[in-house]
Write a sequence for this structure.
């Protein structure tokens, strides 16, 4: 549970969230 690996994960989740919001 480090800050380094969580940053890219959050970014991916953010991108997926935006894509889902705009795609759907």
């Amino acid at each position: 549970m480090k800050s380094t690996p969580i940053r890219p994960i959050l970014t991916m989740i953010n991108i997926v969230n935006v894509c889902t919001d705009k795609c759907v």
